[in-house]
Amino acid sequence: MGRRIYLEDLPLEEASARWWRALAEAGLDAPFPAEWVPLEAALGRVTAEPIWARLSVPPYAAAAMDGFALRSADTVGATETRPRTLVVQPEGGEGAACYVDTGDPLPEWADAVVPIEQVQFDAEVPEEATRITLYQPVAPWTHVRPVAEDIAAGEWVLPANHRLRPVDLGVIAACGYAAVPVRRQPRVAILPTGTELIPPEAAAARGVRPGEIVEFNSLVLAAQVRERGGLPTRFPIIPDDPDRLREAVREAARAHDLVLINAGSSAGREDFTARTIAALGVVHVHGVAVRPGHPVVLGLLRVDGRAVPAVGVPGFPVSAALTGEIFVAPLLARWLGVPPPRRPRLEATLTRKILSPLGEEEWVRVTVGRVGGRYVAAPLPRGAGVLSSLVRADGILRIPRFVEGYDQGQTVVVELYTDPEVIEGTIVAIGSHDLALDLLAQFLAERHPGRRLRSAHAGSLGGLLALRRGECHLAGTHLLDPESGEYNLPYIRRYLAGVPVRVITLANREQGLIVAPGNPKGIRDLTDLARPEVRFVNRQRGAGTRMLLDFHLGRLGIDPARIRGYEREELTHLAVAAAVASGRADVGLGIRAAAAALGLDFIPLAMERYDLVIPEAFYGEPWLQPLLELLHDPRFRAAVAALPGYAVEAMGNEVARLS
Prior knowledge:
Layout: H1 12-25, E1 34-38, E2 51-52, E3 62-63, E4 67-70, E5 84-88, E6 96-100, E7 112-115, E8 119-121, E9 131-134, E10 144-145, E11 156-158, H2 166-174, E12 179-183, E13 187-192, E14 197-198, H3 200-206, E15 213-214, H4 217-227, E16 231-234, H5 242-255, E17 258-262, H6 273-280, E18 281-286, E19 290-291, E20 297-303, E21 306-313, H7 317-336, E22 345-350, E23 354-355, E24 361-371, E25 374-379, H8 387-392, E26 395-399, E27 405-406, E28 411-416, H9 420-424, E29 426-431, H10 435-447, E30 452-457, H11 459-468, E31 474-477, H12 489-495, E32 501-515, E33 536-539, H13 544-556, E34 569-570, H14 573-581, E35 587-591, H15 592-597, E36 601-615, H16 616-619, H17 625-630, H18 634-641, E37 646-647, E38 654-658
Parallel strand pairs: 5-6, 13-16, 13-17, 14-15, 17-21, 19-24, 22-25, 29-30, 29-31, 33-34, 33-35
Antiparallel strand pairs: 1-12, 2-11, 3-10, 4-6, 4-7, 5-9, 8-9, 18-20, 20-21, 22-28, 23-27, 24-25, 24-26, 26-28, 31-36, 32-35, 32-36, 32-37, 32-38
Helix pairs in contact: 4-7, 5-6
């Protein structure tokens, strides 16, 4: 049995160096050998050796145009007044011509081709001509492709370690090949572990029961492997049984080049990954100072006399995906003989402060857009289980181990997932979450490919402050002023003084209390929130819904400290509804559409106006017009009106112009 290492806290650089040393000592850090594959199966594969032309391209002198092959000497002196007439005869000779199609071999006696449109001939079609007449001379080798004009036999065509593109396949075929030597694809086994896991098929068929988790990490890891040129094999789910896991790992190692064991990589009671790798080989790393992804295991298995790398991949979705990027992708690149993947980078202004724990390198997912001549990066939720943040992320912000974080407004470097051209076409919205904004993003993407709307949920007040700092193109807000009873305008005047803006209504929507089906706690109104047995879930500070709640609590004389769960915050209406649906809360304040989406009951409280605040500097820009036009589009208005609790009569109306 190999040495047993418990959870460590190695810096990423040290962990990577230890891992690569172990691979080198086992002879596992070199590119894989060649295998010959047919050209039709070679797209995306990596050449294992240089490609040298076996044939010249073209292999003979060829006609470059449809026309007549001839001897250029026979055309000397031809003019409009003294044309030359040539006899069409394939055998050639002095004063002869021969019809040729593009690509036909040039007759040995000819040294030029005259295009059809430059001669007259005595027939309906050129193929039947017996004589042609020329009114100008033809220079030697005009419209002739000489032998090896493109590539000469023996010439170097493509290098080794080159990923084959569609055009490469054509060149290789033209040079005399029907197959090509490419690197053997790494075979990667992916073993999901956990008694609580169920396959997606089961979840789709019957739903998910309490305590069950849909197993999808293996899908993500397999796609990453396939994207990087490997051949993934997803194994069936393995329950938390050390003996069964050990046998499955042994079986996987016999037929694969790399084994990924997903989940069970920490140091808990049912975390068997490190022990399994140690039982079958050596654990070289257990724990890396990177977040997310800390409990990574890196080791080497010894099965049937072979050394096989093994990676214990953390179970949280974001940790699993980032482990694939940090450790798996570079290894696959090395085996295929290509450079490790590198993302484009850009400098961006951070839209809010980020605190990071000392001693760990943190990878923060961000969305990116270009606002007023600079790029802005808005942090997404950072939890290791928030897979949606990877879907929405445009890039990664890496915070070094001994940096406590970055301030709002600081310039940072972002490694991009998204093509920079897509980022240039991004409309950035920061502010209150709203389902109509999600529909607006969907319609914009459908109607105007290349243009997209990206929303960051910072609350209504957070959106206005972001506008003042020049960090977004528009803000969504629904702030009720307790003194005037007016929506939004008092706050815009206060926080955007001196910034000319237009206020456009998106929709009116119904706010109220979201409760479980059947309202088991018998909640009737806001006064019931103060009952000790009622568990509440709130929105974050600065959210319009939170301010609406505080306004009504003040009118009712209810101290927020009496509400159990008042300090518990969620960032969206759907997150509030999900907390109630799961039984973690009895009630939350939110919009009717969120309650309906999760099959919950709803107690109405008020109709409110949700506005878009757009600086004058952006309002007239051509790139914003498609979004504004959608506010008057019948199909979009109908889609929003279909949301429970929404009214669209005022959609697109200009509420005010403020400066």
